[in-house]
Design brief:
Elements lengths: L4 H11 L15 H8 L5 H6 L34 H8 L8 E7 L4 E8 L5 E4 L2 E4 H4 L6 E4 L5 E5 L3 H7 L9 H11 L6 E5 L5 H10 L4 E6 L2 H21 L8 E5 L6 H4 L4 E6 L5 H7 L3 E11 L2 H14 L3 E7 L6 E5 L1 E2 L8 E2 L14 E5 L2 E8 L16 E5 L9 E7 L6
Length: about 425
């Protein structure tokens, strides 16, 4: 409640007279006490009626219950099990036998050859740049440059998930990482979600979904073909086994692979509720009528199709069958790769003419993503990269850089259709 205007005017008028007053900061007084000292004694009681009752303790002192009790000596609590210090030590762990290792070799025309192998004590890494025994790799920290028998430099490290799905054994065409990331954003996957996948394929999308839903989530993957079903399980189990060797935290074992036609799994769907559905199959319209009752209201069904005619058939089936799906988006994901390289200076002192390191025609047989498989060792020949691994010696002179789009681009791979389930109005 505000003070009467008359009392406030009296307070300010008495403060402006010529009496000598003590400075406010000379004593630890509250604003109410300072106001009471400026008022006549007969009006102090009227002011106190508008004020809330306060403790007689000094207002500058903190409440007693909030004051920290003095301790004899500070104690340091032990670090928890998942502390950043332990995680940092785990990130610095060397490569061990039994886990996957990725070797990068820069070839002519600045092409990068990536070789994936499982480390064994008596095995040898065979590349175009020479041989490298696995015993020389085991015990090294990731990111080391090692010399092969022919003197080529190989960069050794652990593979990322997108590199693994590009290099793992395949049966059908995989869902490429650039498309998988877009589908995960479409479905808005959270840790703890339950996701249905139709079309296990080679297991690439299953691995990304497994990481997205986390240990508390679940992925149920249906596959109609026996060979694709077994290959997806094999690739998934291999990643889990090698992950546990080189990392302290476990990869979640949260994918159930089911060998069954999804269009005949209506009984299985009755007791399940899914947060999202992804269909990677030739005829997804045959599965929509089966799976849509198990998708939560407002959930997203992402469909992965290779041709636009398949998208038209899908939308036509939704319209004719009056399925409760609204098409929100149809996209294709393309990336534009760039090549940024230092130019070649023929003569640093007298000639200023520069030419690109990539002049000359490339062998048409050596295209981007040219895959080679030899035994248990898998290689991926990628397109133009950036600078090769630098030497320790300093460059004798500065060189200009040449930047242009790469010869090989990540073009069309699939059409991604986003379907949103809605509740139809009551008739």
């Amino acid at each position: 409640m505000a003070l009467p205007a008359r009392l406030l005017r009296r307070a300010f008028s008495s403060a402006s007279d010529g009496r000598r007053r003590r400075r406010v900061w000379a004593t630890s007084l509250s604003p109410l006490e300072r106001l009471k000292r400026m008022l006549p004694p007969e009006e102090v009681a009227a002011v106190e009626r508008f004020a809330e009752p306060r403790s007689s303790a000094s207002p500058q002192a903190p409440p007693k219950e909030k004051m920290a009790a003095p301790s004899a000596a500070p104690t340091v609590a032990p670090f928890p099990q998942g502390s950043p210090e332990k995680k940092m030590a785990a990130r610095l762990s060397p490569l061990r036998a039994g886990e996957l290792a990725l070797a990068e070799l820069r070839r002519k025309h600045n092409a990068t050859l990536k070789l994936l192998c499982r480390l064994e004590a008596g095995a040898v890494l065979n590349s175009h740049g020479g041989l490298l025994p696995h015993r020389d790799i085991i015990g090294q920290l990731p990111g080391q440059l090692l010399r092969s028998s022919a003197g080529a430099r190989l960069l050794l490290r652990r593979p990322s998930l997108d590199e693994y799905v590009l290099l793992m054994p395949r049966g059908p065409t995989i869902a490429y990482p650039k498309d998988v990331s877009a589908m995960l954003m479409m479905m808005d996957i959270h840790p703890g979600d339950v996701v249905l996948e139709s079309g296990s394929g080679s297991g690439a999308l299953s691995l990304f979904l497994s990481r997205a839903v986390g240990p508390q989530g679940r992925v149920i993957s249906y596959e109609i073909r026996d060979d694709h079903h077994n290959l997806a399980k094999k690739n998934y189990r291999q990643w889990l086994a090698t992950w546990q060797i080189g990392h302290t935290e476990e990869w979640p074992d949260n994918v159930d692979f089911v060998l069954k036609d999804i269009s005949r799994a209506a009984e299985d769907m009755k007791s399940l509720t899914f947060d999202a559905i992804v269909l990677d199959m030739l005829n997804p319209q045959s599965a929509l009528s089966v799976v849509h009752p198990s998708l939560k209201e407002g959930g997203v069904c992402a469909v992965y199709l290779a041709n636009i005619t398949q998208v038209i058939d899908l939308l036509d089936r939704i319209r004719t069958r009056r399925l409760p799906f609204a098409c929100e988006k149809i996209v294709e994901v393309t990336h534009r790769n760039w090549s940024v390289l230092p130019a070649k200076i023929k003569n640093c002192k007298s000639s200023q003419r520069a030419e690109s390191q990539e002049d000359g025609e490339e062998d048409p047989q050596q295209k981007e993503c040219d895959e080679i498989q030899t035994g248990d060792q898998i290689a991926l020949n990628e397109g133009e990269g950036n600078e090769s691994f630098p030497d320790n010696a300093e460059t004798p002179c500065a060189a200009p850089y040449i930047a242009r789009p790469s010869r090989w681009q990540d073009a069309h791979s699939a059409f991604l259709t986003k379907l949103r389930k809605f509740r139809p109005p009551l008739s």
